[in-house]
Specification:
Length: about 140
Amino acid sequence: MNHRNKNNHLGRKYGHRKSILSNLASSLIKKKRIFTTLAKAKALKKYVEPIIRKSKIHTTHSKRNIFSSLRDKTAVSELFKNVFDKVRVRPGGYTRIIKTGFRIGDQASLSFIELVDFNKIYTSKKIIKSVRRSRKKNE
């Protein structure tokens, strides 16, 4: 039975899984969008959202905690830059998973995982002008 076992082991031992998730998380923070399998994306979402939540607190302690899980100086410094001010306002739900299809070789389901505030397609709000459908009546 698999009761109360929430994390996906991804078919790997603890050290390998930990390094994969930290590498994926640092790539996601640097590139804002990465392409991976659906299982890894779901595991990464559980891994990276608490890290982003901790980055809202701008202290040395939080930086060191984040560095211990990411192990990448450039990703940690990127997380604390002014670019992430959009993220700091958001109360939660920092990532989005978009399913893209299946891999040709083994039919593994593929997906994008991206940071929500950095996607231009979904975040930009279009200004819709009201169009007048009838002519102006002359009196």
